[in-house]
Amino acid sequence: MLELVSYGAFFLTVALTYAVIVLGLNVQWGQTGLFNVGVAGFVAVGAYVSAFLTAAPATGWLGGYGLPIWAGWGAGFLAGGLVAAGVGRLTIRLRADYLAITTFGVSVTVQLAALNLQPLTGGPFGVSQIPRPFAALAGEALAFGLANLGLLAASVLVLYLVLEHLARSPWGRVLRAIREDETAAEALGKSPRRFRIEAFALGGAIMGLGGAMQAHFIGFIAPENYLPMVTFQVWAMLIVGGSGNNRGAILGAVLVWAIWAASSVLVEALAPAGEQARAAALQTVIIGVALCAILLLRPQGILREMRRLRPAPSSKTDAP
Amino acid sequence: MSATAQQASPVLEARNVVRHFGGNRAVDGMSLSLHAGEIVGLIGPNGAGKTTLFNLIAGSLKPDAGEILLGATPLHWLPATARIGAGLGRTFQIPRPFAGMTVLENVLAAVQGQSGERIAMNFLRPGRVRAEERRAEARALELIEFVTLSHLAHEPARVLSGGQRKLLELARAMIAEPSVLLLDEPAAGVNPALLEVIIERILEINRRGVTILLIEHNMDMIARLCGRIVVMAAGRELAAGTPAGILANREVIEAYLGEVGA
């Protein structure tokens, strides 16, 4: 029983780290319509920057400054945002398909850099010994798991509230206006380019934060964690949960991660020992099938985009 | 009103503006000036270059040659997004409401210089953002009432009729407090009852001190609103004058009938 609870805590914590990343993608795609197919790259930047600053030093590696975890999270957020702002400035005027190709290229570049810039990234073996929150509790699996789950749950809640506040703010309103009619928004003095770059940078920053959170929870990162598969998973999570809806983004992350985890158990149980590695590919197939099913049955995702038709609740002046 | 305004320097001026599309000189050395408080009608047959000239003034197109000045400020190098801040508002021939947003949100989206449009300000100065938003909302509701759409303020803009959309665009442009307003066919496709409202509101906006340049095909409306008419044909000015004078002008009539005397 205790084991089950601590596995549940572990599972949910990982799912919530994905939820952070999906919330970042929702700012870019769900709210702004920016087709980022390089999610893995921004996640990797956040994870590596945080690991670089917080892990213990190791031979042949320039990083390892032993900074506190919260500093790593903050640096991951900033690094993801800076990279996204730079990529955004260069590419944001490209429309959907070209932006997709460019961002995909960026994420492959980041992954290859992680693999080859050994002094900075630890090369193919990555970085281990990344400090984990509540490390003092590591002996007691349950307490450790629940403390981490609590930390992640609180972080996701705060992030959710911040993003909801932004979506209802004048900034969020301009984003919606630009999505509805770019020409009209321009005539009203709102620069689509400026707002798109801001949304792209904010989304990238949140992805970087998610990457840093993941790195600290697992305690180990390597280039193979940031293959395009991550991008695919995150996209599946957003589409299943409901693009444009922050609650949907969180729900989708938990749900798709559940399918992923369950299918991994299934593959282990059913595939013969010699075929396990090959059978693991079935996991991707299962996610793909789930994605197709959602697109066919509920194209807007489980939770559809909330219509924010009500004005901000500042309108107490309505006539009785 | 236009008579008293003639002496002052123009509030909006286009000088020898040229714009080609391939081999087609859509606007071919057109000049135009508006004086404070005027309503000027811009008329001409289809394809005369009126909307292109509008887009050049509003900044959604760049001129190949010529200058556009708002007061003393040269506009032609300002991006379209900066022109409304400089005091130049516009509406579109085919209205472009933000269909999924409410009428109120549509108008609020046009407020200039809101600090809440900066991400960080929403967290650093939430009180200031809220106060600005409250003020903007009060002004927006006033303008929505002004264009007779109060009963629809909280409905999505997609439910509006063609004429109501034109009215919404008026309110949206007005909340930016422009000194000059460009109206592209505010009467097109509007039912007669609403047309009266639109004409009346345009006059009221003008009375509040806004100078207006208006493209229109409805000559009756032009005659009622405009002190002065400029006729465009083949990308240039064909004639200019009072409504009565223009209606009697043989060249203008020929242009409309398709035979430009050249």
Structural class of chain A: mainly alpha
Radius of gyration of chain A: 20 Å
Proportion of strand residues of chain B: 15-25%
Terminal CA distance of chain A reads 57 Å
**Spans of chain B with pLDDT under 50 lasting ≥5 residues?**
1-6
* Largest protein-protein interface: A-B, 31 and 45 residues
Q: How many domains of chain A?
A: 1
Shape of chain A: globular
Structural class computed from helices and strand pairing of chain B: alpha/beta
Number of helices of chain A: 13
Oligomer: heterodimer
Number of helices of chain B: 11
The CATH C-level name of the largest domain in chain B is Alpha Beta
What is the 3D shape of chain B? globular
Structural notes for this entry:
The complex is a heterodimer of chains A (320) and B (262). Chain A is an all-alpha fold. Chain A has one domain. Chain A contains 13 helices and no strands. Chain A has helices at 2-30, 39-54, 69-91, 96-116, 118-121, 141-168, 170-180, 182-187, 192-218, 228-241, 246-270, 276-279, 281-297. Chain B has 2 domains: 2-97 and 176-257, P-loop containing nucleotide triphosphate hydrolases (Rossmann fold), CATH 3.40.50.300; 98-159, no CATH class. A 6-stranded mixed sheet of chain B has the order 6-7-8-3-9-10, with helices on both faces. Chain B has a 4-stranded antiparallel sheet with strand order 2-1-4-5, with helices on one face. In chain B, a hairpin with a 2-residue loop joins strand 1 and strand 2 (24-34). In chain B, helix 7 (162-174) runs parallel beside helix 8. Chain B starts with a helix and ends in a 5-residue tail after the last helix. The model of chain B is unreliable at 1-6 (pLDDT under 50). At the A-B interface, helix 6, helix 7 and helix 8 of A face helix 3, helix 4 and helix 6 of B.
